[in-house]
Amino acid sequence: GHIVRLYVQRDRQHNEALRQQEDKIRLKKQLTNNINHELKTPVASMLVCLELLHDHPELPEEKKREFINRILANAQRLNSLLKDVSTITRLDEGAEMIETTPVNLAELIREVVDEERLRTSMSIITNVPDITINGNRLLLESVFRNLIDNAIAHSGGTEIHITADTNGNFTVSDNGCGVPEIHIPHLFERFYRIDAGRSRAEGGTGLGLAIVRNALALHGSGITVSNNHGLTFRFRLGN
């Protein structure tokens, strides 16, 4: 009986390993297909503008400037997309690839918020005690930066609040319009957009909240989101 149980356990472990490997392959294929789709629009726009500038040197300066600005905006979007794809690919490799050091979260948040305040008229209000955890500083920065960027780009609100208690229970919320409940279960999916056209126009890559979820998972935390006079994200960071 003991030998039978060992064989059954081995088979279960083998099947679980196969399932995980199949899931990784499926996610990589899905990511590749999504990236190809996301690259087509900015590349096509840049090609059209460059062809017009190349074939019509007589264009008025104002029109040339308009095309150059459009090329620049699409190049910046491509750059953001490549950075986000690099991050999420690294996250997919797993925790063994991520280096950790002691990180003071109050200090990290203060630095991120100081930078974000330069690019928005929204008030960013923080109330975070002195919390130090073992984590990856760049990924933790990406968590708070992406949540703030999401509120700036999509909430339509005037305030962003970042709060935490001494146990590391965090809340990031805004006083904006929230989202229809039908979208809530999908917000952390890669390339998921409520309004695809608007998101692309604002330079979003559709990977920000997926990066948040995966970065938190590598730090042993999940994340939830709800409508509460705007969006409210909750997660825990602690050792």
Task: Walk me through the structure.
The structure is a single chain. This protein is of the alpha+beta class and about 240 residues long. The strands form two sheets. It has a five-stranded mixed β-sheet with strand order 2-4-5-7-6. It has a two-stranded antiparallel ribbon with strand order 1-3. Helix 2 packs parallel to helix 6 and helix 4 packs antiparallel against helix 6. About 0% of the residues have low confidence.
Strand content: 15-25%
The residue-averaged pLDDT reads 83
Q: What does the overall shape look like?
A: globular
**Beta strand count:** 7
Query: Any idea what the radius of gyration is?
Result: 22 Å
Which structural class matches the secondary elements?
Answer: alpha+beta
DSSP helical segment count? 6
Low-confidence stretches: 197-201
Element-by-element helix/strand order: HHEHEEHEEHHEE
Termini gap = 41 Å
**Helix share, percent:** 55-70%
- Main β-sheet description: 5 strands, mixed
Biggest sheet, strands in spatial order? 2-4-5-7-6
Keywords:
single chain; 239 residues; alpha+beta; five-stranded mixed sheet; two-stranded antiparallel sheet; 6 helices; 56% helix
